[in-house]
Amino acid sequence: MQINNRILDDLTRVTNSALGTMTGMKGEIDALVRQQFERILAGMDLVSREEFDVVHDVAIRAAERIDALEAKITELEGRLAVADKAAPKPAAKRASAKPAAKKDA
Fold first, then answer.
1. Tell me: the pLDDT tens digits for 61-70?
2. pLDDT digits (tens, 9 = 90+) for 29-47
3. Where in this protein does the record put region Disordered (predicted)?
4. For residues 35 and 29, what is the distance between their CA atoms, to the nearest angstrom?
5. Rounded Cα–Cα distance for residues 19 and 11 (Å)
6. What's the rounded Cα separation, in Å, for the pair 31 and 38?
7. Which of 14, 59, 72, 78 is the one with CA 20 to 30 A from 30?
8. Burial 48-87, CB ≥16 within 10 A → b, else e
9. 97 DSSP assignment
10. What whole-number distance in Å separates Cα of residue 98 and Cα of residue 82?
């Protein structure tokens, strides 16, 4: 019985050491993969989230302003059309068709 316990204890210690080593290796592999991704992303010239949010907000405000200006243009065109209909049309001027006098020399 004593021999079996020693073998089991040794096997347990070896297994625990292997698991600890595997856990450490996993941490190192994760760190290496993370560093590689960060290096790749740094070379891609991407914008930060803050920069994206600022540009997004500016684009939304610009779109709202465009909509307001389009509505104002439509209103002004409507007013112009009404004013054109209400204004009297001037009579067309007739050009005098008198021929120029010829000078005899």
1. 999 999 999 9
2. 999 999 999 899 888 888 8
3. 85-105
4. 10
5. 12
6. 10
7. 14
8. eeeeeeeeeeeeeeeeeeeeeeeeeeeeeeeeeeeeeeee
9. -
10. 40
Name the token pair of 21: 């080593």
Tokens standing for residue 6: 């020693």
Question: Which residue's structure tokens are 């992303």?
Answer: 41
Prediction pTM value: 0.44
What 3-state DSSP class applies to 1? Answer: coil
Task: Name the token pair of 45.
Answer: 């010239």
Torsional sign, CA 48, 51, 56, 59: negative
Residue type, 104: D
Residue in this structure with the two tokens 């210690």, named with its chain if needed = 13
DSSP line for 26-60 = HHHHHHHHHHHHHHHHHTTTPPPHHHHHHHHHHHH
